[in-house]
UniProtKB/TrEMBL annotation:
Protein name: HAD family hydrolase
Source species, domain of life: Bacteria
CDD domains (alphabetical): HAD_like
Alphabetical UniProt keywords: Hydrolase
InterPro entries: HAD-like_sf, HAD-SF_hydro_IA, HAD_sf
PANTHER family according to UniProt: ALPHA-D-GLUCOSE 1-PHOSPHATE PHOSPHATASE (PTHR43611), FLAVIN MONONUCLEOTIDE HYDROLASE 1, CHLOROPLATIC (PTHR43611:SF3)
């Protein structure tokens, strides 16, 4: 159970997308199962060898914009990543009680800003599938800013794009590394996601509280 949040001291809520608002299972299945399988087929490799090569590619650019870039991976792996996403659209699902939580934030007058590392092409797919834009006040992809959320430059660029007071802001993300980056920038409140992928074991957060279900935050009581 996360610690109670001082909602009277929070004006802006920055929200990650994949693993935070949306079940990470879609992306996990795409990148950990479907991409290695198609790569093995295309290059006539054994599954284990294909997975080893894919993981090496992933590790080489982890934490950079390329890691999140559909076009980079399509070119690097010679695969139609956009087409593969279309094959598994049914796996794009909200996390439990996200919509009631976002509605409660709106009712309480909190600004709801999606801040994601997802490539605009990936973002567009999820907006189309779930109507994300109907439940948020602003949507920003780090690709528009030129740096991933892991870097301080990204946070500085976000503040120029969407002015907010770090001392009165909550940031919710399933990556502790990115939560740390937000704290280093001066964001006052952080919240992790205990189980971003519903098909995988829970995560453990060392520095920040984490929630299992947005119902834990409802109603919004300071």
């Amino acid at each position: 159970m996360p610690t109670s949040l001082p909602w009277h001291q929070i004006d802006t809520v920055l929200l990650d997308m994949d693993g935070t608002l949306i079940d990470l299972h879609f992306d996990s299945h795409l990148w950990q199962t479907l991409v290695p399988a198609r790569y093995a087929e295309r290059h006539n490799l054994a599954p284990d060898e294909a997975k080893r090569r894919i993981d090496a590619h992933y590790e080489a650019v982890a934490g950079t914009l390329n890691w999140y870039c559909v076009d980079y991976w399509s070119q690097t792996l010679s695969l139609d990543i956009r087409g593969m996403k279309q094959e598994i659209l049914g796996k794009i699902q909200w996390r439990p009680n996200v919509i009631p939580f976002l509605a409660a934030l709106k009712a309480a007058g909190k600004r709801r800003v999606l801040f994601t590392n997802a490539h605009p092409a990936s973002l567009a797919v999820k907006i189309e599938q779930l109507g994300l834009d109907e439940h948020l006040d602003e949507i920003v992809s780090s690709h528009e800013l030129g740096w991933s959320k892991e870097s301080q430059e990204s946070w500085q660029a976000l503040a120029e794009r969407v002015p907010f007071d770090p001392a009165r802001t909550l940031f919710v993300d399933d990556s502790e590394r990115i939560l740390v980056a937000s704290a280093d920038y001066g964001i006052a409140h952080q919240l992790g996601i205990h189980q971003p992928d519903s098909a995988m074991p829970p995560l453990q957060f060392r520095r920040f509280p984490a929630l299992k279900d947005y119902a834990e935050l409802l109603p919004l009581i300071a």
